[in-house]
């Protein structure tokens, strides 16, 4: 009888080695890129959408390179202090790699980079756990946007509905979500059915490093002041 693949023993030392090799390859890639590009930025992101980010990444591929992943690995790559940074002053960048952040290395002029990041904005349907940006309430009465086949599904989402002569009808007012509160799985599904997009994928520049200078952007500076207060 052939051995089951499920019973195959995997050496932990091998998996640890692969993990270490992967981290080392990222560190080396960042260090090589840091020698290639003129400017290095730290940016933060909110409501990440992988497909949209991939499109943005491809758009800038000829002149730039992005790195996302473990902040600690990226910190090691650029250097955590003046004694181990790979280019003079680059260690200042590592201190700002925290939370949802990434590295952007580029040869583009500063003004063009700022314009690209400031203009980048993609709206999408909010996911479970996202905070509702507004209150959405459906009033009692017919819901003409839904076909009669949808009635059982809507009931499963907690909506007080029934079929009235083949038309989906809300028997009482129903609050889908409250502004400022996290969305439940049911609320997220209903908002998608209603075509209401509450999530906005944005990128924010935190700082810029170049061989000549280091700049902390105003928004990041304000956040730093709040944290230190």
Structural features, described:
By secondary structure, the chain is an alpha+beta fold. Helix content is 37%, strand content 24%. Helix 1 (12-36) packs across helix 3 (71-78). Mean pLDDT is 88; it is low at 4-12 and 224-229. Strand 7 and strand 8 (167-170) form a beta hairpin.
Helix content: 25-40%
The name of the CATH superfamily of the largest domain reads Ribosomal protein L10, N-terminal RNA-binding domain
Instruction: Indicate the radius of gyration in whole angstroms.
Output: 24 Å
Strand/helix succession: HEHEHHEHEEEHEEEHEEH
The overall strand count is 11
CATH topology of the largest domain: Alpha-Beta Plaits
Overall pLDDT level:
88
Unreliable runs, pLDDT <50, ≥5 residues? Answer: 4-12, 224-229
Give the biggest beta sheet: 6 strands, antiparallel
Write down the oligomeric state. Answer: single chain
Blueprint of the fold:
Blueprint lengths: L11 H25 L2 E8 L3 H11 L3 E5 L2 H8 L12 H4 L6 E6 L3 H10 L1 E4 L11 E3 L2 E2 L8 H6 L4 E4 L2 E4 L3 E4 L7 H10 L4 E11 L4 E3 L1 H11 L1
Antiparallel strand pairs: 1-3, 1-10, 2-3, 4-10, 5-9, 6-8, 7-8, 10-11
Helix pairs in contact: 1-3
Subunit structure: Associates with the pre-60S ribosomal particle.
Organism: Durio zibethinus (Durian)
Family: Belongs to the universal ribosomal protein uL10 family.
């Amino acid at each position: 009888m052939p051995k089951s693949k499920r019973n195959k023993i995997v050496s932990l030392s091998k998996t640890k080695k692969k993990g270490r090799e992967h981290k080392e390859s990222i560190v080396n890639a960042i260090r090589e890129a840091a020698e290639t590009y003129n400017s290095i930025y730290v940016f933060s992101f909110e409501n990440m959408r992988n497909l949209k980010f991939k499109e943005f990444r491809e758009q800038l591929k000829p002149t730039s390179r992005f790195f996302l992943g473990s902040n600690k690995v990226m910190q090691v790559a650029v250097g955590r202090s003046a004694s181990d940074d790979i280019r003079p002053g680059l260690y200042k960048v590592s201190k700002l790699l925290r939370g949802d952040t990434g590295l952007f290395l580029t040869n583009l002029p500063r003004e063009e980079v700022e314009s690209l990041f400031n203009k980048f904005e993609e709206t999408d349907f909010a996911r479970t756990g996202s905070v509702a940006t507004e209150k959405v309430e459906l009033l009692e009465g017919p819901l003409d946007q839904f076909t009669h086949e949808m009635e059982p599904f809507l009931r499963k989402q907690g909506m007080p509905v029934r079929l009235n002569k083949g038309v989906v009808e809300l028997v009482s007012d129903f609050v889908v979500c409250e502004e400022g509160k996290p969305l439940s799985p049911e609320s997220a599904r209903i908002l998608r059915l209603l075509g209401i997009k509450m999530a906005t994928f944005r990128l924010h520049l935190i700082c810029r490093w170049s061989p000549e200078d280091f700049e902390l952007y105003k928004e990041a500076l304000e956040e730093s002041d709040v944290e230190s207060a």
